[in-house]
């Protein structure tokens, strides 16, 4: 049990004396499925939020602070020290990832290792950026030395499904580019920051990283209302992003770096390789129980292949092993959000009331805080499971005759992150890929949707994202081009 008392403000690890909020895991160690107490965190409010903001503003000091004016090599040195210290905390963080969000052991290690690798890659990318900015350009007799400068104060909020990796995918590039930051860990996956607090405190100058705990509304709202935030960096849902953005009194001055909802479809064409498309759709819909923005959230199957596909797919769903994150070979694990199974149940009930059926034998089975993934067919546009981003274990399936049907649905959708396309005939695929690329930002051919490898751009159209993340792009999203020009005279 971890009682997180320390919080990081203005370079000091201060001890919290006020109210605390208990943190539970939905993974139960008792037979009656009672939640497990993992520890507690400070219940912070407006006062601490504004103090943290004050520290971040002073450290940035309108671009004249120690951090934004520090030499690139020195900022890199701080980041190298940080990642080295972080690496020593691997076991502690992974254990907390498993308990707090129910992520399987291999995936928890993957999340940690991917984050460390992301930091090292970011350092290398920043060195490259710096080398390039040292070069002079000359156009029409004007020399220019173009570089990248920080934007100011960044408020960082990460999601519960990747509480380490996605939070750091925002925080690390923001810090290294010379911005100062305030960050609040996700509601689930909050204690795993505890082992890293000392590293943040000791590796960066005063006020560069400020860490708050508490409810998003209580701490993020007053920070935004101050009008002093230059960048809102958030991976989560558009409702929270919009609410925070609207609170900024001069939102035209606010840069947004957002990763939001998606309803990524799989489109299975009649000539698709059946085994491959079933396997990829299983991974795409149900990795981490479907709790990924990149998850496949609706499957379109061509009428000619529908029966064979659904038969194999439903059996494959029922054969997935359920268990605790540390169980060997486990694929389905407890859901971290206490009310999530009820929500998934509502989606199933709504779809069934409107004519869908559950195709797999175990679909909708309830036990513990879990609901067995249901394969729902036929799903129609009036169903909630078609309209909402379920972010959990339920799979809506739609059949089609003409490719224009899924294409029209995607064109009308409010989202536009990725698509998975399964088929073989190159003359069919080639023009289709061109059309799909105008509807989403990544077309995955014969493979499920995913964010990585992290060198590839991660973004989306419409309500799915603002700005682009990747090792390369994030450095640009958290900076602005500035330059020195002089004439040849
Ligand atoms: O929740 C959205 C994440 O960006 C998904 O990332 O595709 O690496 O699992 P992933």
TrEMBL record:
Instruction: Give all residue intervals belonging to the Aldehyde dehydrogenase domain.
Output: 26-479
Q: Which PANTHER family match?
A: SUCCINATE-SEMIALDEHYDE DEHYDROGENASE, MITOCHONDRIAL (PTHR43353:SF5)
Q: Does the keyword Electron transport apply?
A: no
Q: What is the similarity comment for this entry?
A: Belongs to the aldehyde dehydrogenase family.
In terms of PROSITE patterns, this protein maps to: ALDEHYDE_DEHYDR_CYS
Record Pfam families: Aldedh
Q: Which InterPro entries match?
A: Ald_DH/histidinol_DH, Ald_DH_C, Ald_DH_CS_CYS, Ald_DH_N, Aldehyde_DH_dom, Aldehyde_DH_Superfamily
For this UniProt entry, which segments traverse the membrane? none
Q: Does the keyword Oxidoreductase apply?
A: yes
CDD domains with a match to the protein in the record: ALDH_F11_NP-GAPDH
Q: Which UniProt keywords apply?
A: Oxidoreductase
Its protein name is NADP-dependent glyceraldehyde-3-phosphate dehydrogenase
Question: Organism, per UniProt?
Answer: Aureicoccus marinus
Annotated signal sequence is none
What GO MF annotations does this protein's record show? oxidoreductase activity, acting on the aldehyde or oxo group of donors, NAD or NADP as acceptor
């Amino acid at each position: 049990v971890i009682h997180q008392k320390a919080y990081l403000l203005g370079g000091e690890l201060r001890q919290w004396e006020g109210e605390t909020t208990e943190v539970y895991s939905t993974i139960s160690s008792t037979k009656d499925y009672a939640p497990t107490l993992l520890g507690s965190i400070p219940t912070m409010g407006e006062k601490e939020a504004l103090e943290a903001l004050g520290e971040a503003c002073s450290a940035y000091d309108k671009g004249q602070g120690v951090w934004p004016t520090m030499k690139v090599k020195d900022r890199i040195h701080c980041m190298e020290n940080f990642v080295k210290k972080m690496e020593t905390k691997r076991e502690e963080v992974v254990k907390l990832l498993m308990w707090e969000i129910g992520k399987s052991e291999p995936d928890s290690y993957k999340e940690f290792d991917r984050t460390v690798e992301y930091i090292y890659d970011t350092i290398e990318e920043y060195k490259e950026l710096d080398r390039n900015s040292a070069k002079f350009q000359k156009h029409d007799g004007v020399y220019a030395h173009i570089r990248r400068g920080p934007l100011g104060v960044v408020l960082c909020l990460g999601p519960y499904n990747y509480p380490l990796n996605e939070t750091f995918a925002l925080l690390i590039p923001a810090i290294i580019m010379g911005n100062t930051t305030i960050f609040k860990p996700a509601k689930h996956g909050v204690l795993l920051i505890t082992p890293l607090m000392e590293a943040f405190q000791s590796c960066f100058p005063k006020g560069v990283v400020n860490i708050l705990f508490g409810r998003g509304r209580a701490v993020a709202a007053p920070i935004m209302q101050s009008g002093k935030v230059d960048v809102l960096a958030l991976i989560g849902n558009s409702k929270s992003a919009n609410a925070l953005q609207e609170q900024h009194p001069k939102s035209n001055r606010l840069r947004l770096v957002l990763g939001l909802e998606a309803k990524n479809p799989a489109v299975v064409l009649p000539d698709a390789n059946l085994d491959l498309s079933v396997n990829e759709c299983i991974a795409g819909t149900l990795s981490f129980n479907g709790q990924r923005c990149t998850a496949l959230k609706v499957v379109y199957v061509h009428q000619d292949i529908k029966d064979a596909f659904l038969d194999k797919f439903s059996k494959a769903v029922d054969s997935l092993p359920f268990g605790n994150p540390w169980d060997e070979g486990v694929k389905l694990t407890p859901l971290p959000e206490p009310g999530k199974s009820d929500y998934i149940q509502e989606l199933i009930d709504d779809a069934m009331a409107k004519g869908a059926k559950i195709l797999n034998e175990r679909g909708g089975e309830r036990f513990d805080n879990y609901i067995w993934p249901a394969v729902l067919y036929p799903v129609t546009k009036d169903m909630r499971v078609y309209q909402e981003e379920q972010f959990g274990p339920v799979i809506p399936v739609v059949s089609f005759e003409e490719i224009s049907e899924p294409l029209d649905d995607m064109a009308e959708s409010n989202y536009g992150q990725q698509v998975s396309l399964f088929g073989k005939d190159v003359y069919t695929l080639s023009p289709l890929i061109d059309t799909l690329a105008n509807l989403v930002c990544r077309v995955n051919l014969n493979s499920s949707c995913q964010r990585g490898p992290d060198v590839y751009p991660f973004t989306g159209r419409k309500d799915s994202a603002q700005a682009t993340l990747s090792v390369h792009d994030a450095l640009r999203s958290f900076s602005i081009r500035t330059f020195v020009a002089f004439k040849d005279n």
